[in-house]
């Protein structure tokens, strides 16, 4: 209505009040009690449901929770060595005991069922428990631990999803082959993966080869500066703590994806029919700045290019022209056969999604996109690197389907650290984590409603654990862990999660 301005009273008169036949003056004053108040639809979650058969789980990794670092014949890992070197980890915390999950796995599984209602669980297998020196003689006791864990999960109706490499490389392979700097480590990884698939094949149907190529390669072999807004970066490191030059680092990246491809083939060769395999990568997610087709196209182009060294080459079987151009003389050395192996067909794609990595808009230059900086005042979660934007959980899987036609996608990690404290009444009120969960899962549900084939969601993490170089300080669990007494207490977010699982919907 150009040229006129409606007062609040006129507005009420012209709309709802008129419709229900009471005077606007009365309604505005809210004095009448005989009018049934107009209630919004009950928020039962019925309208925000996930597809039937959706997997709801949590995730953990061996070094972060197991403890028992030198028990039952386990070999030393590069993370044992790194954590035992003073100054590397906040507070000099180590995974020597961590959550003592190695001895408490039974009650931990019971907790997944009783407190979370989960129907899936993603854990990792410690390579040095199975092959203490990386290759050679397997260690039966190490394997037996995972057999018992999986049996316990199955008995509780929880589907096990096993990750074969969550960064705890046998120290012996670091010494013998310089770790992932050598193709021999990729081959040894495939041998180990095939062996496990053969041994656990009667119990485990889903495998993820490698967790977060980007994190362990960049963090461990160079150190990585992550953009966090306002032009600031935070530095992340990790085992084995090297600082390689560009050419060597690109070769490590290549060996990691080669190790994945070889492992996929070995798992298929040794696992029973019906064994399913994929990877779990923290694919960098470009979020369109405005939701128009042109911006979405720019975000897809950016996502493909940002992940050229990991996700893109694994799903396309080639390094993009722009990647080869930008790395130039430092590009990895590879053969066509290796590219074929790297892109071995997968049953699903797993992505770990915590944050938007980039905001983009269309641009006329050949890349097709331009980066929009993250503002200094942009909201964040507790971890120094954790920029908050739930839309990342919409666009991450959306891009995977749009760019590569994936038919089955898992969110293999999503979650946040919070400054959780136990109240006097013995409860942990993690209001920010509940906000985070509802906001991110609303976007994930939107993706499934749009037909993006997301089959499951694994919250990181089941319980507070050793958060790598941040030590025990950054708590990511739905369950609070007291590292002195090993007591576990479900947080408020655990109740939220349980209610969501029960309804298979956002609550
Ligand atoms: C992942 N980032 O690491 C790992 O897979 C987990 O082991 C870890 O505990 C969890 O996420 C929480 O950190 C990440 O900078 C490290 O965006 C860094 C980033 C994301 C994930």
How would you describe this structure to a colleague?
The chain is an alpha/beta fold and 507 residues long. The protein has one domain: Glycosidases (TIM Barrel, Alpha-Beta Barrel), CATH 3.20.20. It has helices spanning 8-14, 16-20, 24-29, 62-65, 78-83, 101-116, 127-130, 140-155, 171-177, 183-200, 213-221, 246-270, 293-306, 308-316, 321-327, 336-342, 392-404, 431-449, 492-503, and strands at 55-59, 120-124, 159-165, 206-211, 224-229, 232-236, 276-281, 286-288, 349-352, 358-362, 369-372, 409-413, 454-460, 479-481, 488-490. The strands form four sheets. Strands 1-2-3-4-7-9-12-13 form an eight-stranded parallel β-barrel, surrounded by six helices. A three-stranded mixed beta sheet has the order 8-10-11. Strand 10 (358-362) and strand 11 form a beta hairpin. Helix 6 packs parallel to helix 8, helix 17 (392-404) packs parallel to helix 18 (431-449) and helix 18 (431-449) runs parallel beside helix 19 (492-503). The longest helix has 25 residues, at 246-270. The model is unreliable at 1-30 (pLDDT under 50). The structure holds 4-nitrophenyl beta-D-glucopyranoside. Residues 61, 211-212, 215, 226, 282, 352, 354-355, 385, 413, 460, 467, 476 line the site of 4-nitrophenyl beta-D-glucopyranoside.
């Amino acid at each position: 209505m150009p040229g006129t301005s409606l007062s609040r009273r006129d507005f009420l008169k012209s709309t709802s009040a008129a419709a229900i036949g009471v005077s606007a003056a009365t309604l505005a004053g809210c004095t009448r009690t005989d009018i049934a108040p107009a209630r919004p639809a009950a928020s039962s979650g019925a309208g925000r449901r996930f597809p039937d058969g959706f997997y709801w789980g949590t995730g953990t990794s061996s070094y972060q929770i197991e403890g028992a670092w030198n028990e039952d014949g386990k070999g030393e890992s590069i993370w044992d060595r790194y954590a035992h070197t003073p100054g590397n980890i906040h507070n000099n915390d180590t995974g020597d005991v961590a959550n003592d999950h190695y001895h408490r796995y039974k009650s931990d599984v019971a907790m997944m069922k009783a407190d979370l209602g989960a129907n899936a669980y993603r854990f990792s297998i410690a390579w040095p428990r199975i092959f203490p020196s990386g290759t050679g003689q397997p260690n039966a006791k190490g394997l037996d631990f995972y057999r018992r864990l999986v049996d316990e999960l199955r008995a509780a109706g929880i589907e096990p999803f096993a990750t074969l490499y969550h960064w705890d490389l046998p120290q012996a392979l670091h010494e013998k082959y310089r770790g992932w700097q050598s193709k021999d480590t990729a081959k040894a990884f495939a041998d180990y993966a095939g062996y496990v698939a053969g041994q656990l094949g009667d119990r485990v149907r889903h495998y993820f080869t490698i967790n977060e190529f980007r994190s362990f390669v960049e963090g461990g072999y160079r150190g990585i500066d992550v953009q966090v807004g306002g032009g600031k970066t935070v530095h992340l490191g990790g085992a084995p703590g090297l600082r390689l030059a560009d050419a060597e680092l690109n070769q490590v990246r290549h060996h990691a994806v080669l190790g994945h491809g070889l492992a996929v083939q070995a798992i298929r060769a040794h696992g029973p029919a019906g064994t399913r395999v994929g990877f779990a990568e923290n694919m960098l997610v470009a979020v369109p700045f405005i939701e128009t087709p042109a911006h979405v196209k720019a975000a897809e182009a950016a996502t493909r290019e940002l992940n050229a060294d990991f996700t893109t080459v694994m799903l396309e079987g080639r390094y993009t022209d722009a990647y080869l151009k930008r790395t130039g003389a430092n590009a990895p050395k590879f053969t066509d056969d290796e590219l074929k192996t790297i892109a071995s067909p997968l049953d699903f794609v797993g992505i770990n999604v915590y944050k938007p990595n980039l905001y983009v808009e269309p641009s006329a230059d050949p890349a097709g996109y331009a980066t929009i900086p993250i503002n200094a005042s942009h909201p964040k979660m507790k971890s120094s690197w954790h920029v908050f934007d739930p839309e990342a959980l919409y666009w991450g899987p959306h891009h995977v389907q749009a760019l590569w036609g994936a038919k089955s996608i898992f969110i293999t990690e999503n979650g946040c650290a919070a400054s959780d404290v136990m109240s006097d009444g013995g409860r942990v009120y993690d209001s920010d984590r509940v906000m985070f969960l509802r906001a991110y899962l609303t976007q994930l549900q939107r993706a499934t409603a749009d037909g993006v084939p997301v089959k499951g969601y694994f919250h990181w993490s089941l319980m507070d654990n050793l958060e790598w170089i941040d030590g025990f300080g950054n708590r990511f669990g739905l369950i609070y862990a007291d590292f002195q007494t090993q007591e576990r207490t479900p947080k408020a977010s655990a109740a939220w999660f349980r209610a969501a699982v029960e309804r298979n919907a956002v609550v």
